[in-house]
Amino acid sequence: MLRLRIFLAFLLQANLISCLPPKVVLWKNRLLLSTHKLPWRRKRLRMRLDVFLGIFHRSPDRVYQSRTVSIFIDRIYIPEFSRLLHPSFDNVKVYVDWFFLDYPLEESRTPMAIPLPRIPDSPGLFVYKKEFHLSRRRVALLEQWLELGNRLDFTLITEGEDSEELAVAQLELSRTATDETTTIQFLDINGEHYADLDLVISYSSDIFDCLRS
């Protein structure tokens, strides 16, 4: 009954009260128009009714394709004096995971592990791009990250049941992320340089517009 009253108020405001059909009924919590013939503005009324009822079913946190953050994991290099060049790391495969906003880990990891390069400064190729389509809530969270200076953490991990976290790299996020390649360093807990990672972080141009409306 409350919905019907709101609808009638909507019609009054829209100057469409004269377009009401002879009978408006509630059935199973839905507004139904009677099958009686409507006035000449029938089509317009139905269109506005669809818009009105759509308000009740609209998700407040819809995901839009235009609100996109892309993370492209390109390649890894092992510097000349890295511990990862030790023979004990021969035949070892690694992957990279990262922590971004509140996305689960399974959405924030390279799908394939690659062999560690055995020649200094020779690239190991991931060539993996992950796109995140953000809801308005996550866009707000991203803006909060930027304001607080939060960094994006990447972890280099060995493949296998006894997987080991080898090193961590960090990237400071920018509000105007571009398509330029950035190189970050993987460091162990003692700050020792293990590897370098080339990656690209990019945002859609209008990603923050939803917070201004």
Give your account of this protein's structure.
- Helices cover 19% and strands 36% of the residues.
- By secondary structure, it is of the alpha+beta class.
- The chain has a domain at 68-211: Immunoglobulin-like.
- Strands 6-3-10-9 form a four-stranded antiparallel beta sheet. A four-stranded antiparallel beta sheet has the order 5-4-7-8, with no helix packed on it. A two-stranded antiparallel sheet has the order 1-2.
- The radius of gyration is 27 Å and the shape is elongated.
- The chain starts with a helix and ends in a 10-residue tail after the last strand.
Topology:
Layout: H1 2-13, E1 24-27, E2 30-33, H2 42-57, E3 63-77, E4 93-99, E5 114-115, E6 124-135, H3 136-148, E7 151-158, E8 165-172, E9 182-187, E10 193-203
Antiparallel strand pairs: 1-2, 3-6, 3-10, 4-5, 4-7, 7-8, 9-10
Query: Rounded to an integer, what's the Rg over CA atoms?
Result: 27 Å
Provide a count of the helices.
3
| CATH architecture call of the domain at 68-211 | Sandwich
CATH C-level class of the domain at 68-211 is Mainly Beta
CATH topology grouping of the domain at 68-211: Immunoglobulin-like
Order of helices and strands: HEEHEEEEHEEEE
What is the CATH superfamily label of the domain at 68-211? C2 domain
- Number of β-strand runs: 10
Mean pLDDT: 78
Strand content: 35-45%
Euclidean distance between termini CA atoms: 32 Å
In short:
The protein has 213 residues and is of the alpha+beta class. It has a domain at 68-211: Immunoglobulin-like.
Keywords:
four-stranded antiparallel β-sheet; alpha+beta; RPGR1_C domain-containing protein; signal; 213 residues; 10 strands; Immunoglobulin-like; C2_domain_sf
